[in-house]
Write a structure and sequence with these properties.
Length: 257
């Protein structure tokens, strides 16, 4: 009796491994999209809207990686394919961590007002002078936006207040300049009582302008500061955090001598 030839067929036990590879590939694709969005905009390869689209696609791809990973994990455990199951668990964890970044950004955007100009003196905000020309070419205005912004700032960031220091203006000026240089800001002007600089965000390269004004008050020095974004309706709290961190560091620098 003639024997039928044996035809090799892929084992059903291989498909958890293939699903695991698929989830890994999706995760790598999501990571690549997430990583290139900021630098692509910063180097002017894409416009801002397209850069945000890359972030959105990265989120969708990470979700797909997590979904495939979950299927792989269940199949791997059911078929006792523990290596694919372990790989799938790692993919799920990595995808969750990757999605946490845009989720946190979105949560933060919902929690703060849609403003982009923060100052310690809303009645008499320090004016931009040295960076005024650069801001004229930017979407956001040079002048302080006004009462609506001031009201929203007071409600959201009550900690943003002038800083009064028991040191002469000259000493505070030198310390403020050192703090700006330590922060990596580009100094635009250093006068006897004011400093202007531009801070560039690391990932997207957004430009935010900063001015610090010093006034003598009965032998003390009052420090007022303003930080404003050139682009975007909302700064997601970035400028308030910058002002608070700078004034805190300035006081610590002077306290240390």
């Amino acid at each position: 009796m003639a024997h039928q030839p044996i035809i090799d067929r892929p084992s059903k036990s291989l498909w958890p491994r293939r699903l695991a590879w698929a989830s890994v590939i999706l995760l790598l694709a999501a990571g690549l999209l997430l990583a290139v969005a900021g630098p692509a905009y910063r180097t002017e390869l894409v416009e801002l809207g397209n850069a945000f689209s890359l972030l959105r696609y990265a989120t969708y791809t990470a979700l797909a990686a997590a979904a495939v990973g979950l299927i792989t994990l269940i199949a791997g455990v059911f078929r006792r394919r523990f290596v694919p199951a372990l790989a799938a668990a790692l993919v799920i964890a990595a995808a969750a961590a990757m999605m946490y970044v845009p989720w946190q950004h979105w949560q933060r955007a919902q929690a703060v007002p849609a403003i982009h100009d923060i100052t310690t003196d809303t009645d008499d905000p320090p004016a931009f002078e040295a960076v005024a020309d650069a801001r004229d070419d930017a979407p956001n205005e040079v002048d302080y936006p006004g009462n609506s912004t001031a009201r929203q700032q007071r409600e959201a960031y009550p900690e943003i207040q002038p800083l009064t220091l028991s040191a002469p203006v000259k000493t505070v000026l030198a310390a403020a300049r050192a703090e700006m240089q330590a922060a990596g800001w580009d100094l635009a002007e250093v006068d006897t009582r004011r400093l202007e600089a531009t801070a560039t965000t690391r990932w997207f390269g957004f430009k935010d302008d900063v001015v610090v004004r010093l006034r003598d008050e009965d032998g003390m020095t009052r420090v007022d500061m303003r930080s404003a974004s050139r682009l975007g309706k909302s700064d997601v709290g970035t400028n308030a955090a910058r002002v608070h961190a700078f004034l805190t560091s300035l006081k610590a620098r002077l306290d240390q001598g």
